[in-house]
Amino acid sequence: MFSVITVSDSCAAGKATDTSGPHLVELIKQSLRTDTVNYLLIPDEEDLIKQSLIYACDVLKVRAVFTTGGTGFAPRDVTPEATRAIITKEAPQLTLAMTLCSLEKTKFAVLSRAVCGVRNKTLVVNFPGSKKAVGECFQSIVDVLPHLLNLLNEGEIERVRETHRKVQATGDGPVPQEVYHVCPHATGKGGDDRNSPFPMIDVDDALRQILATIPSVQTARKQLSRVNIPPFRASIKDGYALKSIGGKGMKKVIGYISAGDAIVQTNFTIDECYKINTGAPVPQHADAIIQVEDTKLVSRKNDYESIVEILAEPSASLDIRSIGSDLRMSEEVFQYRFPLDACQRALLAAVGEKVSVVKLKVAIISTGDELLHPYDTNAAADASSLEGKIFDSNTTMLVALVRQCGFTEDQCEIQQRVVKDDFESLKAEIESLTGAVHIIICTGGVSMGDKDFVKPVLKALNYELIFGRVNMKPGKPCAYATSKVTKFFGLPGNPVSAFVTFHLFALPALRQYLATLNETAPNAAKASLPMITVELLDAKYVLDPRPEYARASIVSRNGKLLATITGGQISSRLKSTIEADVLLELPARTETKPYITAGTPLKALVLRSDFISRYE
């Protein structure tokens, strides 16, 4: 991800049109192979420039921030001062390269005071304000930018070394252009490098990068009531409707009122009353309800009550719900959150509104020559056809998980497909879905096998590959890519890996995308699985070199939540998910901490609403 900040009083005030910033955005997209470039237009205010730079570096954590404007000698040209105040390292040779290039065009290039440097892991570059100068300066440094960005990212050290080898091989020639995917995927072919070219990133960083590419809006969509609830004065109790000024004592029962009856308009005396049911409309001239428990039946006539004694003193409005006491017309009913749950649907029904949702379109793909449809009766009957084959469980599981997480048919449309392990078949399938669906969830084909074609296919279809490996167990080969409309999740083919990575990465994206389609801001706190703190119940568990998400069941013992890991945690063992109530976050193994023991406090991500398996 990258950021472009145009600094200009006149453009920010709407007195001029910014051409340099948009031009720079396009240069970055074309040269650095990305669709994710944030653009910001601000006035020449030093504090605001500093705040914007810090936000891009520390909050958005972009790889590079490019500013345009405010680098001259005018009184309000303060971009260099703001930049110098926030960077932790200067990069004067980048500035020199731009100056030397610009001097070949104009002698006025010496009047630029541009600053280049680094803040933590983010590159910061000042460009002049003119569109022409922006293009010239960008081209003067673009060849070294990929290598520079790799140097800032510790996870890309192998690519740094590769560039160094190429430079040494070519002498003092230009730095070789970065290749963003150089993996020997073709069957029967290979190279000297047997390692994945993709850096391993942390789980939190992976999720942050995913959500940054999912469209979002900032305002919440509100539902207003078009009716009063209740729309009439309603009885809170089963009892008798009367006039409070009549006090207690003997009353003649002159009628019966049930829920759904019309409002009684007839006037009556203080010695009379109506028997009334809960929820029924209170007579127009009654102002109190006395519950049945505070009365005594005196006489009946033809099986109907005729005289009752009121034992409690009535007061005005006693046990009466006034019009609109629950919800008034035009009052806010709720702020939408998606997917819609039972409470929202109930409130919509209560105010007479139909459920209206723009559907999220999702495609779920399994890849593999070994896969058979689980309900293929012909294959099941022919034992020879099962040799070397397995039944596909991933699509069944993922469709069920999407539905289980609240994405009902009226909110989410799902396609299911199984694709063979060859480049052209997979390319044709993904190409047909790109632009037609919002999210593709694909399992398999993302690791290091000769037939793992997902990442090359995504490159061929001009997807921007955001990441290709995650530092986690299970799920290390997980990949994510983005296009203008369609977002692609490449989950590992092992069922448990797919199960875990769906919950950690795909589910938050599904929630945010559905919210955006329906014009409401996503609830960041509810995007991911709920987190609780538990204690390990197992006597000892040996840690993995990577952070692990172990499937565990929860026991409640005297109010304390204890977690016990559900057997073998190998990524192909789908049975470990059956009794799993949570995903247990386990730290990576270190020399000083190779294992954890009973009583160790751990964070756990809740998988289901009934997440306590046993009470002791």
TrEMBL record:
GO molecular function ontology, one term from the record: molybdopterin molybdotransferase activity
Keywords: ATP-binding, Magnesium, Metal-binding, Molybdenum, Molybdenum cofactor biosynthesis, Multifunctional enzyme, Nucleotide-binding, Transferase
Highest taxon of source: Eukaryota
Span of domain MoaB/Mog: 3-148, 363-512
Reactions mediated catalytically: molybdopterin + ATP + H(+) = adenylyl-molybdopterin + diphosphate; adenylyl-molybdopterin + molybdate = Mo-molybdopterin + AMP + H(+)
Family from the record: In the C-terminal section; belongs to the MoeA family. In the N-terminal section; belongs to the MoaB/Mog family.
Function: Catalyzes two steps in the biosynthesis of the molybdenum cofactor. In the first step, molybdopterin is adenylated. Subsequently, molybdate is inserted into adenylated molybdopterin and AMP is released.
Protein name, entry field: MoaB/Mog domain-containing protein
Protein's organism: Anopheles merus (Mosquito)
Phylogenetic placement of the source organism: Eukaryota, Metazoa, Ecdysozoa, Arthropoda, Hexapoda
